[in-house]
Amino acid sequence: MAAEVRPRKLRRTDTLPIIPEPLPRYSQKGRDAYDKMLHQTIRAIHDPAAESTKAFERYRLPSPPPLARRATDLSSQPQGAQAEGSRPYQEDRLFYPVKVLLEHKGIPIEATLFGILDGHGDDGRAADFVKENLKFELEKRLNEKLETADTLDAAAIGDAFTQVFTHLAKTYQYDYYRIDGKCGGTTVCCALRIGNKIYFPNVGDSRVILIKSGKFFQLSEDADLQNPRFTTWHKNQGNTIAKVRGVWRVFRPNTPAMGLARAVGGHTWMCCRPKISCITIGDGEDDPEKGKIFCNHRDVLIFVSDGVTAKMTTRGIVEMFNRYRDTGMSHEEIANQIAAQAGASAGSDNSSVLIVPIRANSN
After folding, report:
1. 363 has pLDDT over 80
2. Lower CB density within 10 Å: C or N end of the chain?
3. In the Cβ-directed half-sphere of 353, how many Cα atoms lie within 13 Å?
4. What b/e readout covers 331-343, taking b as 16+ CB neighbours within 10 angstroms?
5. What is the mean pLDDT of the chain?
6. pLDDT higher than threshold 80 for residue 4
7. Pairing of the two strands 111-120 and 207-212
8. What phi and psi, each to the nearest 5 degrees, are found at residue 48?
9. CATH homologous superfamily of domain 91-205+213-223+260-294?
């Protein structure tokens, strides 16, 4: 029998081909087929023609499995992946799952938080600051509301997130970025699960998508400077919106320009009020016009940064996910592939993907 081939850890690469699941048997035929696939993959990855830009931050080739094993072993766990693009650093952050400790009249309430942050302007320090402090500040605000209310609805949760984001933005602006004068901020696209409800507060242009059997829903609205709802607010504040080198930006006298309509941090005048959407875990008829969307354990949430949506539409992301899932890929491998393909073509922006399966409980 030929000696076992152990794939080494690869360096960063520009393009990553789709690697099929290796044959799960120890037969000589299966081993030879795997070795051939492995060598073809290495040659494709190290093609000199693909040495123009840095792309994928982390990827590993599949190890030859000793026993039959499907690639969906981790399908019930959230999986994330990131690509740097041509930047020498990563400003995006992922967080999942984060337990939020709530209680009402001494009775604990299960809550879980997960999402994506897209930092800008300060090498990711604003995103790090929000990631480290969001849980504590959210617990504080929500528990205060539970002292005077029996339940939390979308309005109360939206108000709590607005208070949290405003507090974090002001704290970061006054205490941190002035150390070296950098004006940093971050988008926040997250989900808070409480009981059979999942709430989605969104600030900025990161995106969350619900993929169901045969259909999908975009659950967040990009804070785009071409959207009249956001441009009107900025014009009322005396800000100017103009296109610079093909990119829309908002200007205010004596401050750096911003490429977002909303963000946490960045400037003291930047609005960080989130837009909230909600879905229900259970069976029911979807009616998006009335705000009624249902999901169950067969469905999946995908969070992506604008490094992905700059090159892919929502429908394109969904079709790519379904195509890879149909081949037997795990959620980790699918996240890797989406981030890699976006990172290889997204120019200088980072690309991040977080896949969260809907589960029967919030753990």
Report:
1. no
2. N
3. 30
4. bbbbbbbbbbbbb
5. 80
6. no
7. unpaired
8. -60, -25
9. PPM-type phosphatase domain (3.60.40.10)
> Of 18-32, 207-221, 300-314, which range is least confident?
18-32
Distance from C-alpha of 137 to C-alpha of 173, rounded to nearest angstrom = 17
Pick from 75, 315, 81, 96: which is nearest to 191 by CA?
96
pLDDT on residue 17: 43
| Better-predicted residue by pLDDT, 194 or 51 | 194
The amino acid sitting at 157 is: I
pLDDT at 8 over 50: no
β-strand pairing of 92-99 with 111-120: antiparallel
User: Contact, 288 vs 215, CB < 8 A?
Assistant: no
Rounded Cα distance between 350 and 111, Å, is 29
Cα angle 81, 309, 161 (rounded to 5 degrees) comes to 80
Rounded to whole angstroms, what are the CA distances from 235 to 207, 229, 292, 331? 25, 11, 33, 42
Among 246, 238, 352, which Cα is nearest to 304's? Answer: 352
Q: Hey, what are 155's tokens?
A: 């309005």
**Cβ proximity of 300 and 241 under 8 Å:** no
Q: In degrees to the nearest 10, what's the CA dihedral of 216, 229, 307, 326?
A: 0
Q: What is the DSSP letter of 27?
A: -
Amino acid letter at 221?
E
Burial of 82 (0-12, 13-18, 19+ CB in 10 A): buried
Q: Which long-range contacts (CB under 8 A, 24 or more apart) does 205-208 make?
A: 205/118, 205/260, 205/261, 205/306, 205/309, 206/116, 206/117, 206/118, 206/303, 206/304, 206/305, 206/306, 207/303, 207/304, 207/306, 207/308, 207/309, 207/314, 208/115, 208/301, 208/302, 208/303, 208/304
Residues 27-32 have a mean pLDDT of 55
**Cα angle vertex 254, ends 252, 255, to 5°?**
60
Query: Strand pairing of 294-295 and 275-281?
Result: parallel
